[in-house]
Amino acid sequence: xxxxxxxxxxxxxxxxxxxxxxxxxxxxxxxxxxxxxxxxxxxxxxxxxxxxxxxxxxxxxxxxxxxxxxxxxxxxxxxxxxxxxxxxxxxxxxxxxxxxxxxxxxxxxxxxxxxxxxxxxxxxxx
Amino acid sequence: xxxxxxxxxxxxxxxxxxxxxxxxxxxxxxxxxxxxxxxxxxxxxxxxxxxxxxxxxxxxxxxxxxxxxxxxxxxxxxxxxxxxxxxxxxxxxxxxxxxxxxxxxxxxxxxxxxxxxxxxxxxxxxxxxxxx
Lengths: 126, 132
What we know:
The complex is a heterodimer.
Chain A: H1 12-44, H2 51-58, H3 61-89, H4 93-120
Helix pairs in contact in A: 1-3, 3-4
Chain B: H1 2-13, H2 17-49, H3 51-61, H4 64-93, H5 100-131
């Protein structure tokens, strides 16, 4: 027995890929996110974080790629998780399709906003 | 609405012990983390889109109320991560271990790991809030 729940009325193959992707991205996220939280929340702390701190951090390509991976993996993992949770409580196929469409749009918009910011970097305060 | 009531009364009436606790905690923590993550992506994005606004966002996070919320957020990250590893391990490496006794045992280990990582982190953060 495993916990793979192919949703009724959906294509099983895509759900199986999503199911595996949640586990693989989850394992990667434990490393990335525990590291991020340890550095930013515990060791540095928000009292010492400001726009210059972000600029200094993103001066290094390593941290930019790190943050980009974190953004892509965490938000995708989170949005798919939210979709799974909502699908547990919302059953009509039409409502599900609408919900999936809205979540996909939201995922795309927020990922683009975050991705453009990481690529564009810190702009100086006017 | 009636369905939501069924769900919520089901969660409180069903006596699923450790397995149910693991599931509910995983779900609540996951939803909490993704809510903050969404806000956090947008606040960080202001450094590019509206740099003057970043200071305002950070000022909010520096308030004691957010500081306390941050401590619970860290617990959510740690528990969701530890329990997620447990699920991934069982699903991908040892599906035959999906039995009630091993679920119960492994839930306590997961919770123990999460608490052992969380308590020192929470202590550091509480001291920092008190120091102002």
